[in-house]
Amino acid sequence: MKEKYLINARIIDPKNDLDEMGGLIIDSKGLIKAVGKKVANGNLPSAVDKIDLKKQVLIPGIVDMRVFVGEPGYEYKENFRTLSDAALSGGVTSVVSMPNTSPVIDNVSMVDFLKRRGRDKSRINIFPAATLTKNTEGKQMTEFGLLKRKGIVAFTDGVKTVQNPQVMARIMNYASQSESLIMQHVEDNILSEGGLINEGEISTRLGLKGIPFLAEKIIVERDLSFLEEYFCRYHISQISSEKTVSVIKKAKNEGKIFTTGVSINNLSLNENDIGDFKTFLKLSPPLRTENDRRSLVEAVNEGTIDVIVSDHKPEDVESKRLTFSQATTGATGVETLLPLALELFHNKSVKLMKLLASITSNPAKILGINKGSLEKGNEADLCVFDINKPWVVNKDKLKSKSKNTPIEGRKLQGQVLKTFVKGEMSFERV
Amino acid sequence: MAVIKKLKAVKIEQNHLLGIQDISFSQVSEILDQAKTFITLNKSDSKKIDILKGKTQINLFFEPSTRTQSSFELAGKRLGADVMSMNIVNSAIKKGETLIDTAMTLNAMHPDIIVIRHQDSGAPNLLSQKVNCAVINAGDGRREHPTQALLDALTIINRKGKVEGLKIAICGDILHSRVARSNIYLMNMLGAEVNVVAPKTLLPHSIERLGVKAFTDMKKGLENCDIVMMLRLQNERMHGSFLPSVREYYEYFGLTPDKLKEANKDALIMHPGPMNRGVEIDTNLADDINRSLIREQVELGVAVRMACLKIFCKRN
User: Fold this and answer.
1) Distance between the two ends of chain B, CA-based, in angstroms?
2) Which residue blocks in A40-154 are alpha helix, DSSP H?
3) To 10 degrees, the CA torsion angle through A113, A117, A119, A122?
4) What is the pLDDT at residue B241?
């Protein structure tokens, strides 16, 4: 590989609180050789080819902690190739793949398969998660030690919550010895049974059974109680309500150490968007009130919430062309994660550095992976974007195999122009 | 010079009857006025006319129903339409066919109107997006049952002359009731004051936001009411631990002469049926011809459905 010289960019590296005009050199191995204002046209040999980024923003490649792939078992919804095309066009260079495949990722042999497929078919970094419990049944914990040694970065039952408190207590107690990361989907199944959308005025009007915010809050409170006794690396996958934000804020103030994520959907949409039974907005956790949405945005800005995820869950047409109660849960989002997040910057809700940290350095730190920053010696995973470019979401132009975007027709501001993975330009918008 | 384009006034006319929430006051008036003309027709010797001659009406019932289905069937036949009733409870859907596939199949038969009842809220909305004919909602999940509310309004108007200014109490399982929701919207639209009376576990979240006052004390809820609408308590609700027992429910929420004293002297009782005597209503009250409108509701139900069929069929 030839050395690459990227110049004339606005370099933002949240991990090092860096925001300055400058450039970046990628060495022949695809690693970052130098970064910052010193990398400028005048300081470089005149003979080399330079890529002029024309003052666009250059950030570390985005790390998305919650993505559903579809391989194995649901290849018709998304495979590694289509996922990586979608991710690259959104500036995402690393994803954590959810283990809710068919069969589920709950044993060592599945990990080998996944890593091989990920390596051969995708052009991004796939960090697989395995299940917390065998077959996500919430009964028997998986082999955290052996799976971690194979390269599993996190353990989660994905769309399910470990309901049995005794099992959860033991999982947290046991996981600490292998320093395994536990990511919990927080939802009490009994409280949310049969629920379809947020419980409130909209659920009353639409005649749909509601999911009370308590279903989420009660599991967060339970797990944080366990955390006092059984300290481990604990991450709450996604939260959706104001009341949960208060619980988390209080626990963090008390000095408890854990991290929290939120889906970009819960930051950008609310229950009113469901309108006339739009099944693409049937999500888990559900979209809640505008008040909830605002408190989540505020929590990102003040650092109570650490990570924003796309919760990219591709679903085929047949799973969504049903009545609301029959339709599958989930929406795509990996391609629109950054532009949609930038809305929060443009409307002055979240500071840019904070926003970018929540999709780069913060997830990388939680996962314990060497990504999400522009430090010398790191693999050059990069995202270049135009922070102001206006465009309109058109599902047919998105690259994911499934078209269930929740923001069809939305006007966004900010678009990814180039994406580099390990020093190679893997995507360029023409 | 800039040319200012004249904006044409767009007349938004709903082609389907999906819910009271989706129609306007003028549409409601049109339906009720039309229905009044059919009341006399239904009492005459020759009940059949031919304004829907040559039209095809399909009744698509995914949930078992006796009165609503037969009411729609009779309404269609009296207007001269060809009526086909399909009970999907034991047919294609069980073989794995989706609602949309069923809709496409039926659409290929060129019906003029489809009457649908479905256990899922929003099913008629989905259907209406996929077919070329008018869709009438005959009850979807917990959402709406517009023709029931319209027939209730007509029944009230028939007895009291108007709905405006009346005080109406809707009592019972509000949480699971589409009849309650449609009636709340309609009675509010027509200018009534609406109270809902139910145990807290059977009151939907934020129900006050629909423009009603909620009561858990039935006597207070019935104070000075002109109309008392009772809802059916479905027996399966006992298992979900919504209530401790039928006995306790009847004690606090069953309509008895004692509780009815709180309402106006000439207050009338309504019930969409089927009734559970001794559960939500005292059996003598249900049969009291001076107070109970229950039989009249069924009678006017046919007239209202004829009006809906005529108006929405014509529109397409």
Assistant:
1) 42
2) 80-89, 108-121, 144-149
3) -150
4) 86
Model pLDDT, residue B1:
46
Amino acid occupying residue A294: R
> Which residues in chain A show pLDDT less than 70?
none
Query: Length of chain A, please?
Result: 430
Cα-only R_g, chain B: 20
How far apart CA B163 and CA B186 sit, in angstroms, is 10
ipTM of predicted complex = 0.91
Q: Report the DSSP beta bridge partners of residue A403.
A: none
With the CA atoms of B213, B218, B220 and B221 taken in that order, what torsion angle do they form, in degrees rounded to the nearest 10?
30
> How far from the centroid of its chain's Cα atoms is residue A115's Cα?
19
- Whether residue B303 contacts residue B158, with contact meaning beta carbons closer than 8 Å, is answered with no
Instruction: Give dist(CA A66, CA A311) in Å, integer.
Output: 5
Selected for mutation to probe chain B from A278, A288, A323, A324 (highest B CB count within 10 Å) is A323
The residue written with tokens 């949309």 in the block is B100
Cβ neighbour number for residue B95 with a 10 Å cutoff: 6
Are B209 and A210 an interchain contact pair (Cβ–Cβ within 8 Å)?
no
Is B145 in CB contact (< 8 Å) with chain A? Answer: no
Residue contact B98–A210, C-beta within 8 A: no
- Average pLDDT of chain B is 91
**Catalytic pick among A106, A157, A311, A381:** A311
